[in-house]
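Prompt: May I have another protein with tokenized structure?
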Amino acid sequence: MKYRIAGLLAVTCLVLSLVCLLPACSREAPSSDAGEAEWKQHIEQGTLYASQEKWDEAINEFSAAIKLNPKAATAYNNRGWAYANKGDAKQAIADLSKAIELDPKLVEAYYNRGLVYRFTSDLDKAIADFTKCIELDPSNFMAYNDRGSVYTDVDQLDSALDDFNRAIYLKPDYAIAYYNRSLVYRVQGEWGLAIADLEKIIGLDPASKQQLQQEMALIYNQRGIEYGSKGEMEPAIADFTKAIELDPGLVEAYYNRGTVYNALEQWDKGIADLTKAIELKPDFAKAYNNRGSAYSHKDQHDLAIADFNKAIELNPEYPLAYFNRGNAYARIRQTSLAIADFNKVVEISQDQSLVTAARQRISELRRGQ
């Protein structure tokens, strides 16, 4: 009889942006020297408040600047971003649009409005604004990066990669673009390229090492799953091992490596990894099921049944655990309990192959009674 194991587990892994606030611009200033000084002071104070995330105070300062100089595109741009950070996207877009009306070449206003449009999921408008930024300033690496992020949102991954590549070309130390490009590579299954981009970021910013190593662990885990799905077990084990090295707390990597060891009939190694997964996540029903399968193959049926019991306790609608417990009961000649478990599989499973296997086991056991 064959005990069955649950499948491998993936772990999901964000996209970062910058923002442009502007200093006072002399060409926008009121005619009098006193008015210019006061207007600039409000812009400077508002920008300081914004840097401290004191958005209401920043809005008040930028509003005072606008009152002194209603044609101040800079003040509208800065106030728009403050509104955006308060969560008032409608007012933010109104202010940023006013800034663009007053100064159609104000790159920063297009950029900031593009960020707000992206936040509100108005993605076509976001792309249009970032494209306008690039048209006005072809060296604007941030606009390329953020347009690439929107292209990622709409699954235009080739266009996204083009933009991230351009952002990196324009600013080779631009960590955010490497990170965002790594996200695209992950979606495309280009695991090695994704890892290389994260390693590049660590080189640029060593303080990010711990966080990015955890992300790299997720990528190794995912690539290991891909190897496992193709039957390439040794590369899978190597990747799960690397994931554990990078993030010793990554439950899924222990679970997945243990599951592969089971598939290779290396039961003791499988049990060790699955035990670690359970230690890290005591409510991990699949780990109990798979460890139970390993115990069963070692003829340690009491331990196996205890694990299947725990899996079922954690997830009473877990047909695979009932199937495996049924086999364990059959091995120790608890035929009625085995048949009850196989009947439960037939009752709750949506997997027709598992239902067929359960019915076959019921038939075999009844013939043997």
Summary: The radius of gyration is 30 Å. The chain has 19 helices and no strands. Residues 1-6, 8-19, 22-27 have pLDDT under 50 and may be disordered. The longest helix spans residues 209-229.
